[in-house]
Amino acid sequence: MSDLKSRLVNCFQTVFPDLPDDQVELASQGNLAKWDSIAGITLVNVLEEEFQIQIDFDRLADLDSFAKVLDYVRQTLPATS
Amino acid sequence: MNITEALRILRAAPHDAPEFRVLLACGFTPLHLQTLLGAHLQRALPGHHVSVSTGLFGDLAGALRLATDDSVHAIAVALEWADLDPRLDLREAHYWGPSSSSDVVATAAAALRRLESAICALPHGTRIGACLPTLLLPPLFHAPGWQHAEHELELDAHLMSFTLALARRDGLRLVNARRLALRSPASLRHDARTHLQLGLPYSIAHADAVAELLAHSLIPASPRKGLITDLDDTLWHGIVGEVGAAAVSWDLSSHQVVHGLYQTMLNALADEGVLLGIASKNSPEIAAAALERADLRLAMEKVHPVEINWNRKSESVRRILGAWNIGAESAVFVDDSPLELAEVKAAFPAIECLQFPRNNPGAAIALLHRMRDLFGRDRVSDEDRLRALSIKSGGEFNAEFAAAGTDPQDFLASLDAHITIEIDPDPADARTLELINKTNQFNLNGRRYVDAEWRALAARHGSWVAVISYRDKFGPLGKIAVLQGLFTAGELKVESWVMSCRAFARQIEFRCLEFLFSHFSAQKMQLAFSPTERNSPIRDFLSGICVTQSDSPHTLTRDEFARACPELYDEVTLTGRRENV
User: Fold this and answer.
1) A39: closest CA of chain B, how far (Å)
2) CB-CB under 8 Å, B204 with A41
């Protein structure tokens, strides 16, 4: 697992502590009941703290799965570093 | 603390521990504040599982109405301008202008009155922490921002009246706005991005500061009981053994007034009931000459014991703590020497060591503020002052008790001891819960209670509480013991029993049990004893009187007790609601 992906898994498990290890990368708003709008904002806060990035709130609705969040962070990180 | 750290603290909370339920009443989306408040409270209450709930967003008074029963243990109120009038909310303001300014003030005043009524309707003694508006007012009034607009002053006046009314309420603590300003500068408080897009007005750093101070308001640290101070370059400037008693200084003219301020602070702490002692490496005669100077701001009769010698500081500290009969975790040691501080800290890891700074007035004043934080309390009671006085008289008692040798009965008979037993005192009496929560040595099981838990215990069918006060020829000790339990269907249970270490060796523990047997006409009682790291005094006492040591809870029969109980010489007075029961 890449370092970036591993850090993202940690972020998800911080916000969703009940999420089993093997389910983290499959998580999405569709299959994770606890991923509501409030949890989504908390996830954004944790991502901003972990990766020292500022997430565009207009993109929040699109960031509805682990895979999409991973893509977003991958795209954002080089631009901010 | 950031959100990630807060979530980890909350995640690690012991989920099988007793719950501490907090209502966060605030008009804005509470997300960050809720998470951070929960984490700060969880840190302060490691033996509890903290849960923070919220009411409806935008309805602060409505949220408070949710808490009018015992469903929550504490309430945190985070008030913002937007709660007082929608025109003060950057997300909702549709019209500003001269014609609306007076109406904004009037609407805000009415909102504050409603809020005050909602708080007054909460159960008496409810633990409340409140934070008044922390954000800048929107620029709606006509005056330039560098100038106080008349309407803004009127708003402040209404807010101050509201604040004063709250400050008089038992159980309510207000976050100090000036301390918050140090912790969270005004310009860094508002996060316009998250506020306007998500409804979260506070930056995370500001939410953390508000949460931390609200948590302090709800779960204040126990005030320290005693302070041990060095003399040279601490209580005064200079080395008295080198320059002489007349040349050490602490006044303005010598430019050493920070030492004078330190003396003023110590004198004030002593008047508030804090124990003061001196530990100094010096020649006793030379140091005594300086301590006798008429311009000393600290009245020396308030200081006991005074340890001036050439021994290690930790030895002096050990003797002082022994005379006070308190643990190192309840004491503070102040010295200018890092070496001495380290030596004492090595011997007593739990003691708070503070360095008196040299040639740094700003740091010296910061030290005074730190001392106020360590010793600060909501209010100073007669009990607090009595405690300090009784430590000194306790020394005289101990000397005579020791002189009585192995048969102290004659001495005890000569004490002219009076015990007052108050049955079922007001559950909101702070001293009762303070004794329960701060007594370590003579403590039946070490159980601690938050005030709502204590009120719930007292409200059960068959519940009883007895508070013991004591005085003898050496002076009053004040309220020194609390017993609490149940008496139902002829069964007497003691669930909590604490006694101040100041009251040891007076046979008060025997009187407590004798009273229970006779008051309830019981033939036996159950004592919910549980060993803790520090309750060996009560364990040893129970070992001396209980026959069935392996039982849990211990059972003590009236006959067993009668065989073990010595002759008691005190005079007992009963007071309280069940006086005639």
Assistant:
1) 9
2) no
pLDDT for B476: 86
Could you tell me the two tokens for B385?
């002052």
Reported as half-sphere exposure (CB side, CA atoms, 13 A), residue B89 has a value of: 18
CB pairs under 8 A between A and B: 32
Residue B3 C-alpha, separation from nearest chain A C-alpha, in angstroms: 6
Does residue B386 have a pLDDT over 60? yes
Higher pLDDT, residue B507 or B392: B507
In the structure encoding, which two tokens stand for residue B223, read together? 């005030």
Region A47-73: mean pLDDT is 87
Tell me which of 2.40.128.50, 3.40.630.30, 3.40.50.80, 3.20.20.20 is the CATH number of domain B404-576. Answer: 3.40.630.30
C-beta atoms of B204 and A45 within 8 A? yes
- Cα Dmax for chain A: 34
Q: Which of B9-13, B302-306, B552-556 has the lowest mean pLDDT?
A: B552-556
Task: Note whether A9 and A23 are within 8 A (CB).
Answer: no
Residue carrying structure tokens 């004040």: B478
Best B1, B2, B3 residue to mutate vs chain A (most A CBs within 10 Å):
B3
What pLDDT is stored for residue B360 in this prediction?
93
Q: How far apart are CA B513 and CA B515, in angstroms?
A: 5
Contact residues, chain B, for A38 at CB < 8 Å: 31
* Residues in B 336-395 with any Cβ partner in A closer than 8 A: none
Domain A3-80 -> CATH class: mainly alpha
Q: Average pLDDT of B432-454?
A: 85
The CATH architecture one would assign to domain B3-218 is 3-Layer(aba) Sandwich (3.40)
- In CATH terms, the fold of domain B226-375 is Rossmann fold (3.40.50)
Inter-chain CB proximity A14 and B4 less than 8 Å: yes
Which of the 8 DSSP states describes residue A50? H
Output the pLDDT for position A80: 45
Tokens of B112: 């504050």
Helix (H, G, I), strand (E, B) or coil at B91: coil
* Mean pLDDT computed over every residue of chain B: 88
| B4 touches A: beta carbon within 8 Å | yes
Q: Under a CB-based contact definition with an 8 Å cutoff, are residues B25 and B53 in contact?
A: no
Closest Cα of chain B to A45: distance in Å?
A: 7
Give the start-to-end residue ranges of the domains of chain B: 3-218, 226-375, 404-576
- What's the pLDDT at B549? 57
Is residue B66 pLDDT above 80, yes or no? no
pLDDT tens for each residue of B11-32: 888 888 888 889 998 888 788 8
Which pLDDT score is estimated for B551? Answer: 55
Contacts of A42 in chain B (CB under 8 A): 3, 7, 31, 35
Residues 18-57 of chain A with CB under 8 A from chain B are 38, 41-42, 45-46, 49-50, 57
- pLDDT of B577 reads 65
Please count the other Cβ atoms lying within 10 Å of the Cβ belonging to residue B240: 24
Residue where the block lists tokens 């209450």: B45
| Strands of the sheet with B352-355, listed across from one edge | B303-309, B275-281, B226-229, B331-335, B352-355
Would you state the pLDDT for residue B550?
Answer: 59
Mutate to test the interface with B, among A8, A34, A37, A42 (most CBs of B within 10 A): A42
Q: Say what the ipTM of the complex is.
A: 0.73
Contact across the interface for A17 and B11, Cβ inside 8 Å: yes
